Amino acid sequence: MTHDDIWPPRAPWVGRWLLLVCVLVVAMILVGGATRLTDSGLSITEWNLEKGLTPPLTAQRWSEEFALYQRTMEYQSQNEGMSLAQFQYIYWWEWGHRFLGKMIGLVFALGFFFFLFTGRLRGRFRVTTLLFALGGLQGFVGWWMVTSGLFDRLDVSPFRLAIHLAIAFIILAIALWTALGAFVWPAKSSKLGLPKWTPFALMGLVFVQVMLGALLAGSRGGAAYADWPTIGGEWIPATAFGQEHFLSNFTEDHATQHLLHRTTGYLVALSALGLALAGLIRGQGPARWAAAALGAVALVQATLGVLTVISASPLSLSLIHQAGAVALWCVALVAARAAWR
To answer: What is the pTM of this model?
Structure first.
């Protein structure tokens, strides 16, 4: 059997390109998390491609950017009197986040058009066109998110933040799945010993958990309850779901957010451990070891979640916990592909 007989066709260079895109997207997610947790997201108040390609390099440019930020509600209500050096600290996080987004777009576009015109994006690799569209949508949603917090709120909308993160996770999943296909992985017999939909269901649960985490972080509720396993001394907070408008419980009420995020986290961990145990007992080939890795990552992530809570969500642990969520998402996808193949 030749490489041309394999379907989808083997295309290792397409796979390497998409893995590079995955690495950049992961970096984008983590820098975005740091941008949110350091309250840096509103430091740049304009969408200007020309100015965005280079950071402020002169005192005059820094003064202009600082003056624009001083018009925002966040500055006037929360950061009034901050020094230029303090502004520069938050500005660099946001500028870095946007610059990384531009670099992802450039890397993707160069690879996409090269492989397209050389005939390597045939068959199922045409899904990369969807990635192109999602990348453009992500840029629009990012600015839509920023505008929600410039003048009418102290922070960006947690709901829009969750949508922004959701698209990033979807892009990462499609790119990683397609990259594995480019390498024709797994190439040998692989069985999980469970129905093929099982790891996909777990991915859905992980996705819900990530969105709940985004709503919690977006409303700055991580440090609201620093006790565990109880929440404010209660197993089920009496104030949970107490908002008059039902949806406000998900975006504004910290008791509800903690209850949902922790409960779903327990479900994710138990489900992943169950899948890992079943895979080790009944699985074969790559699916067996992917399932075992999934259980291990889920256990580490649950531990990180508890440590983050009882430490009142410091920046370092919060970012590590977010990195754990990305790792869990990717390993779950690898397990899903191993079982599906």
So the answer is: 0.92
